[in-house]
Design goal:
disordered N terminus, mainly beta, globular
């Protein structure tokens, strides 16, 4: 296992468990004080395993996921400690790229509709909740099919065709590493499907794990605000229409 040292603490991604019947490997990011992979500690699910993200109107295919931060205004349809998930597709016959809903999931697994827009929207992986009460979500780029010039790509940090297979989600870990989900639409590899990849900002590969054994399951990923010696990690499974969050606090 490769670890990075930050202020005397070790930070690492660790495979947690394989879900029965799902062929699904989950992982989480934890902070340990000179402890190998949280040895001897109990790792419990924060959101119940395989919480459904299918909205009441039938929207499917979760893309974005975000934690509702501490200090988020009370009294609304979501609250601090919940997670939000955006859906890209609507139920047939509308289908691909027409999803209009964001669902909210409480820590005890209760799922409700936070937002429902007007078809078609196709809500993407670009999802975030701000402390002042705003929720920001992305949808289809105007005239994307007719675009003839490239967008500004910025600075290349990590370019590895062996590890990257259509990167979609990206988060910054507390130790400064970058973590990216792979959607398999570009450069697919049958031996590496629905991968989450961790690498440093200097371009060094750290580790990887699979969200699902099938292509196209890994989309949105998110990290919660660190709480003491741990941080919660969330991921959606677009194949199973589920969201999973793990709490790595020392219990």
């Amino acid at each position: 296992m490769v670890t990075a040292v930050v202020s005397g603490d070790q930070v690492s991604i660790r495979n947690l468990k394989r879900l029965a019947g799902a062929g699904l490997v989950l992982a989480a990011i934890g902070v340990m004080c000179a402890q190998p992979a949280l040895a001897g500690k109990t790792v419990e699910a924060f959101i119940p395993v395989q919480t459904s993200t299918v909205a009441t109107n039938g929207d499917v295919n979760p893309y974005g996921v975000a934690f509702v931060p501490k200090g988020f205004p009370k009294g609304g349809k979501t609250a601090s400690g919940d997670i939000l998930v955006s859906n890209f597709n609507a139920a047939p016959p509308l289908g691909q790229g027409t999803g209009t809903t964001i669902v909210s999931v409480t820590p005890d697994g209760v799922q409700t509709t936070f937002f429902q827009g007007t078809t078609p929207l196709g809500l993407t992986t670009a999802l975030n909740a701000l402390q002042n009460g705003f929720v920001i979500v992305g949808n289809a780029v105007p005239n994307a099919a007719k675009a003839t010039s490239p967008v500004v790509k910025g600075t290349v940090v990590f370019n590895d065709s062996t590890r990257l297979h259509g990167p979609l989600g990206l988060v910054l870990a507390p130790n400064g590493d970058l973590i990216s989900s792979q959607g398999d639409a570009v450069n697919p590899d049958p031996n590496q499907q629905s991968e989450i990849v961790e690498f440093t900002k200097s371009g060094k590969f750290v580790t990887e794990f699979a969200v699902d054994s099938t292509v196209g399951a890994a989309f949105g990923i998110a990290l919660d605000e660190p709480k003491g010696p741990a941080v919660n990690f969330a991921a959606v499974n677009d194949t199973l229409n589920t969201a999973i969050v793990y709490d790595l606090s020392d219990k």
